[in-house]
Amino acid sequence: MNRPIKNSGGQIASAIIFPMLIVVMTSVAGIFGLMNWSARLSDESAEESQHKLVGGALQLTQNYIAKQQTGVVIWDEAFRAVKDPAANERWIRDNMMNWLASNHGFSNSVLFDSDFNVASVFSDDSDGDWMTPGLIDEMAPAIAKARARYITSFQPTPSGLYRFAPRGETSHHSIAETGIVPLLGEPHLFTAAAVVPQIQSIFSERKAPAVLVSLIPLRGQKLNNISDMSRLQGFVLAQDQNDRNGVGTYELQSPRGKNIGVIAWQASRPGTQMLQRINPFLAVAAFLIAAVVIAVTLFTRQMTKRLARSEAKAVHAARHDALSGLPNRSSFQALLTKILEDGEQNGTNTAVVYIDLDHFKDINDTLGHSAGDKVIVGVASRLKQVLPGNGIVARISGDEFAMVLSDCENDEWLEYILDQVQDEIARPVKIGRREIFASLSMGAAIAPRDGKNPDELLRKADIALYDAKANGRNRRSFFEPTMEHHVQSKDEMSRELRLALRNDQLDLAYQPQSDTDAKKIVSVEALARWTKEDGTVVPPSQFIPVAEETGLIDDLGIWVLNKACARAHDWPGVVVSVNVSPNQFRHPRFVEKVMAILAANDLPPQRLEIEVTESVFAGRDDSVLKALRRLKSLGIKVALDDFGSGYSSLSYLRRFPFDTLKIDRDFVSDMNGNPEAEAIIVSIIQLGKALGMTIVAEGIETIDQIRFLQVHDCHRMQGYFISRPLTSVALSQFLQDFHNENNEQLAESVQYPAQRAEG
Prior knowledge:
Layout lengths: L1 H72 L2 H6 L7 H16 L3 E5 L5 E6 L9 H20 L2 E2 L5 E3 L11 E8 L2 E9 L6 E3 L7 E7 L3 H10 L2 E6 L8 E7 L5 E8 L3 H24 L5 H21 L9 H18 L3 E8 L2 H8 L1 H18 L4 E5 L4 E6 L5 H16 L2 E3 L2 E3 L3 E8 L6 H17 L5 E3 L2 H22 L3 E10 L5 E11 L5 E2 L1 H11 L2 H15 L7 E5 L2 H4 L4 H11 L7 E5 L9 H12 L3 E7 L5 H7 L4 E4 L1 H6 L4 H16 L3 E4 L5 H9 L4 E3 L9 H10 L3 H9 L3 H6 L1
Parallel strand pairs: 17-18, 20-22, 22-23, 23-24, 24-25, 25-26, 26-27
Antiparallel strand pairs: 1-2, 1-8, 3-4, 4-7, 5-6, 6-8, 9-11, 10-11, 12-14, 12-17, 13-14, 15-16, 19-20, 19-27, 20-21
């Protein structure tokens, strides 16, 4: 009777254990294979990284010797001396070649004249036979590049002459060409640069330069420097490349591609080292796993427990965020309700804090969503660490978190806790080798002071969060009743503005710009104005920010452009200037809309000027520059408004050629008797002229300001002294009357002092 049972048990054991043993053995073999494969990949990756380090260190060394040579090749006396190297050979050897040898260790130097002939040769051991035709041939490509760079750097002037401006240490581009050549059986680093004048010069024609080539052995200190920079050990120079385990090599090549030796070092093989350490443990683990397989027969007993654990995990997953492990929105609502009920019974305060990561979208856009997920996990972990024992934290949505702090003693206690939160988040989040700095904005509401209902408290905490973000981010705000009123007022204004745009209830005012002598109006700036039906005037400082925040700025901007272009026909010969918001430039079809408006109003592009502020370049978005270049290519003028009030002006003056530069009105208003403001204005005028831009001074209110700007040849003026903003009808009358007898008196009053003396 027992035999059938025994056989049945054996069959069951065989059916379970033998397949499981096969699976385990296969898995163990796969693990060993995977570890060896991973180790090989790790070794290859390490070798590639070391190779790049050596290459980068070698390039830095070449750049450094090129910089050392700069002191003698960008030099007026040297430039004059190399014009006749035969007459000045002693001076060239003493002041250029011997100086480089004494101060920077260049063992050899050679000067090629403008016809590419050897003019002077130097060696620190007085050996003049080192310069061979083969060596010259190896260096020829680098010398040719240095000569070509010098010739192409000349800029033609309107007079037919050529202007040359030296580019030295202040330039982003080296004037020298560097490389490696074999000399006397060993590799030498060399740097070749044209000998050029030290200051900007004018020449009648472009001529080939003399080129100084300086060489230094790649051994001793230079090799040690490369080793120090690459953080690698055991650096040696070898003639041939020999593949050996544990030895890394970097092949040295001349400008002609000739192999002249290798740099070898003791290579790091982390994969192999890891494998040597872990293999014994893997063997033991494989044995233990095999033993554990026998215990599979107990699987049935454990089934009930596993099912219970699975159910607990399912419940946890339903109530928690999968990425951060924090309670999710629905779980947070339930926890908040319970804590508020307990707080009401105990007579204690409860703080609800909304948290939003600043510029989290930028992290996803630039580094990818994987990096964003790691930031979320890191922030969640730090919030849990700093959270008091009686609090909870939850992830509400993508980059939004919420905290509940029960037994909130007072505002000062809450501020202390939030200070700790900000300090903790301020530490960088490490993602691989990259450090990401995150910041957060927080809004807090306190029960029962700000309400007792969970939804009401969350809404008010959200309003406080909006206030914190609106005031610069990376800060916190506590809810105040005025915040709610502000939100409601903004919402009401946005609805009224949308309706006013739909019903064409806005209007434009135009402020003229005159030339320097106040004799001609050359441009008018279109300014949006809004007067409600009840006569209430809403200033632009109120409705423009609302339009920006609510997305109405696109509709408002197109309305202003269309209205201004339509009216431009009433004022022939006058350019119409329109301010454009940064958000408008981010619209993918903004340029097409501008083109359609010009076509619909039959207005030449040359009569439209687009005004932008430095904020349009925030984030260094190249799409903005592309849109500006497209507008400029159509013939539309582009002006940089409020120049000097931001931080990126000079860099963007270099990247984009603006037609007009408008000096910020703050400088003009401060210049009366203020030498600092006057000096800044003069500098801006000179800078704009040097870049070929039209200079406009805003905020002109006094005759003294006009006279100062006239003396320094400012091109245009705009301000209340010329005219206040006018309606279209008033502007037409103003232009008609501008050249009458009264205007002649105005022009007379603002003449140059020298002009009045001549009169």
